[in-house]
Amino acid sequence: MPSLFEFLSQILNGLVLGLLYALVALGFMLILGVMEVINFSHGVLFAWGAYFAFTLRPLIGFWPALLISPLIVGIMGLILEFAVRRSYGKDPLFGLLLTYGAAMALEEIIRMIWGSVGRSIAAPAFVAGPIHLGFMPYSKYRLFLAGLAILLIGLVWLFLEKTPYGAIIKAGAFDSEMVMALGIDLRKLRTFVFGLGAALAGIAGVIAAPLWSMKPTMGVEAVMPALVVVVIGGVGSFWGTILGGLLVGMVTGISVMFMPRASQIVMYILMAIIILIRPRGIMGEKSILE
Amino acid sequence: MKRSILRATRHPIPWVFLFFLVLPYLLPLVGGYTYLGVEVLIWSIFALGFNILLGYTGLPSFGHGAFFGIGAFALGIVQLRLVQGMWIPILAGTLAGAFFGALVGLFLAKKRGIYFALLTIAFSQMFWFVSWGWDSMTGGEDGLAGINRLPIGLPGLFGIDMENVLHFYYFVYFLFILCTLLIWIIVHSPFGRTLQAIRYNEVRAGSIGYNIALYKWISFTLSCAFSGLAGSLYALLRNAAFSDVMHWTQSGNVIMMVLLGGGLTNFFGPILGSGVFIVLRDLFSAHTEHWLLIYGLLFMCVIIFIPEGILSLFKKKEPVEESLVSGKKR
Hints:
heterodimer; A: mainly alpha; two-stranded antiparallel ribbon; 11 helices; about 70% helix; B: mainly alpha; 4 strands
């Protein structure tokens, strides 16, 4: 049996991972809600964020890289939206396939630029090493990451709840035709949301890079949990997504301790159980997506 | 009598069968090889079966690669551990596909659209991790090697050597004919008509009194059975079941084949799509190591420019009259 401290630190790891999952899932869900597109390329945008951090951090330092990488990824999202635009209003399959094709192409470009071998980048110096929490040592960077993730999630929440743009986005996700009827340019809104979602994936990639093993296929390891998180939390629910992210992170963290081999599978079992009890996810409500 | 012969020659099915009958002798003329032909047949079975769900029932599954993989591993496990032979392992692969499909189908029967797609992705990924982690059974990263194409015939009397690719081609061809006929019958039966009714308008079909969830579940399970069959044949073709048969890209491949050929508007679309896809992949991957880039871009172009597939370019819409592409399904 693992000791109490091991147990605690794994739970903490799980929470940190969960916050990261929640951040990735949030962007994924915004795009899903407003565009009704399953953005399969969300993961690869996450990977691009990480690789940009890998290249930019040695050049310009951590903070500028944290700002610039998501910006570039956001612009990539804007460009991608031009292609995805063709699928709006059609069967969801087409949006999914467009972004799937994009994911393939973008992943291969990563391979062409940075190679297929795994890369790694250390935590920035000011948060390197362990910190003593009073009862046990813990990784400084993970705490820093958790703080950043909470901050970003908070910013997204403020944006969605306290600004008129957020209100339009939420309304657009609820009933896009009505929003158009009110004279709001939905096309601009959609382009913007796609960019925002991509930037969120990108920034998650930047801060995850020191923890994650960087390889061209790392995108799938981010988009799959995001998808599970959204299903668990309920499509369209902000707090559902956060809760889902934390749950998925926790069960993954705990299962790493007891059966490391199965740790990747537990989240899917959790998902199956939850949709058996609540078919729309924990906080999901009936929506047009069904 | 004369009339029925005439009608038979006008029907595409005999021509498709005739084409694949002579294909192994045509392939060398254009620089192909028999192995490629077998691959086209196997993927055609996979794509035709998958199209029961996608084209006819209108359910966007993005996870059938998992059932393809399950078929491959089930064949491998049965042949390596339980029964030497061909028929029983193939049957096992098919049934395994159907069984796990039926199980997953229970979660999906009441879903549609985006939610359906999300769940199929998630479940297929789960199976992939299982195949990866359960290495005592599936060989994990290395996969299962040593799968044999054993002779087929009556034991003691005669046997046809299947290690010969040409012989194996005709074995798969035989199954391909059976499957094509079976799927043709299924989609043109009252059952198949009901599936199409569900695609047009699920609510309306439900109000007439059809048990929608049951029909969707059967459609899902059926398509998974064909995926399992195709997967087990694929394992035989490659003499192995590597973990990549289960990978999520296989789910993308099969959808691509259906769409590329025009499966949403034509029964034969998946066959054409499989052929074009396999040939293209063979051409490109021989010339560039970055084939995935071309693949991804090609994928996007097909969806943007010819979402109804190649056949839609020069053929009037036939069995599936109103396609997924045009209708907004709410």
